[in-house]
UniProtKB/TrEMBL annotation:
Its main location: membrane. It comes from the Eukaryota. GO terms for cellular component: membrane. The keyword Transmembrane applies. The chain crosses the membrane at residues 36-57, 78-96, 116-138, 150-170, 202-227, 248-268, 280-301. SUPFAM superfamilies: Family A G protein-coupled receptor-like. Keywords: Membrane, Transmembrane, Transmembrane helix. It holds the Pfam family 7TM_GPCR_Srx. This is G_PROTEIN_RECEP_F1_2 domain-containing protein. It is found in: Membrane. InterPro entries: 7TM_GPCR_serpentine_rcpt_Srx (IPR019430), GPCR_Rhodpsn_7TM (IPR017452). Residues 121-273 form the G-protein coupled receptors family 1 profile domain.
Length: 325
């Protein structure tokens, strides 16, 4: 089956002649190379699964995250874990055992499931950005805006949108298929595949991530203004709470940077290298590795979660902080 590679979307970056030249210069993966790439996918994916499961466990056991931010963080980790699981437990084994399954209708469902988790990931990032924006600019209304009910509804909407966006992929003409000759995913070269891949996936991702970037910049400006005006009080509890909220913002900001980097590498930079392994690293490997790096940032920013790994016990903060997150 012919596929439309991601790179063909960027008509403004490369002329058709140059693109054709580049594709002819890139050699396909040989069977033994496909096996090596599949093993890399398997090991990287499993690492992502275990680290994200650890983050989910840590967030549920650590009261510091509170109610709303913790639920959003768990949603993000579930999306990461789902992506890593599909790659490690479906894509890699199929590539090692019988690559031809990828071209079947049911084999192509791997791409559809990945799209669901992908949307769960980007919209969780968006909800995180809105959450941090609200806590900085509307601190008195934050508790009402992100109470348990509203947060639960918001997280549920993320996954409903993800399911709806992935619905067209049920049509074989809209398939998002894993191609072993390039060891990456691509849409089928049909009208439906082009429309879905361009507008419902690529442009949608750009809009969401662009919105996250704008919100994060505005939030960062708010934090700087807050510090200059001395809004952070010297009262122990209020000061600690505000520092924690700012720390959560920078955690989310770092995760967003990782996400943007992955998008730039996958959609843009990977169009240029002529080495198949470099392209594989910028596309498939980076997609999986991002899930691990995203979870690692959560661990790096929260000593309570790190303490679970070090001591095998949970560390809880003052229960009174629950009402603020």
């Amino acid at each position: 089956m012919e596929v439309l590679m991601w790179s063909t979307y960027f008509d403004g970056l490369l002329t058709s002649e140059k693109k054709q030249f580049i594709f002819e210069m890139v050699l396909p993966f040989e069977p033994n190379e496909q096996s090596i790439a599949a093993l890399i996918i398997l090991l990287t994916g499993l690492t992502g699964v275990f680290i994200n499961l650890f983050v989910i466990l840590g967030v549920t056991k650590t009261q510091t995250f509170g109610s709303s931010f913790g639920k959003i963080c768990i949603s993000q980790s579930i999306a990461n874990c789902g992506n890593a699981f599909v790659f490690s437990c479906l894509v890699a084994p199929i590539s090692l055992i019988d690559p031809s399954v990828h071209s079947t209708y049911w084999g192509a469902r791997c791409g559809q499931v990945l799209i669901i988790f992908w949307n769960g990931s980007i919209f969780s990032h968006l909800l995180t950005a809105v959450n941090r924006f609200s806590v900085i600019y509307f601190p008195t209304r934050y508790v009402r805006l992100f109470n348990k009910r509203n947060t639960t509804i918001s997280v549920a909407m993320i996954w409903v949108i993800g399911l709806c966006q992935a619905a067209p992929y049920l049509d074989y003409n809209c398939t998002f298929e894993f191609e072993t000759f390039s060891m990456t995913f691509a849409f089928v070269k049909t009208t439906c595949g082009t429309v879905v891949g361009t507008y419902l996936d690529f442009y949608l991702s750009l809009v969401v991530i662009g919105t996250v970037g704008v919100i994060d910049i505005i939030t960062l400006i708010g934090i700087r203004l807050m510090n200059k005006r001395g809004v952070v009080t010297d009262e122990v509890e209020k000061g600690r709470r505000k520092r924690r909220e700012v720390k959560f913002f920078f955690q989310a900001f770092a995760q967003a940077i990782v996400f943007v980097t992955e998008l730039v590498l996958y959609f843009y930079v990977s169009s240029f290298p002529e080495n198949k392994w470099v392209r594989f690293g910028m596309t498939t490997f980076m997609w999986i590795f991002m899930q691990t790096l995203d979870a690692s940032i959560v661990i790096a920013f929260n000593k309570e979660i790190r303490s679970i790994a070090c001591r095998g016990t949970t560390v809880s903060a003052l229960s009174s902080t629950n009402q603020y997150s």
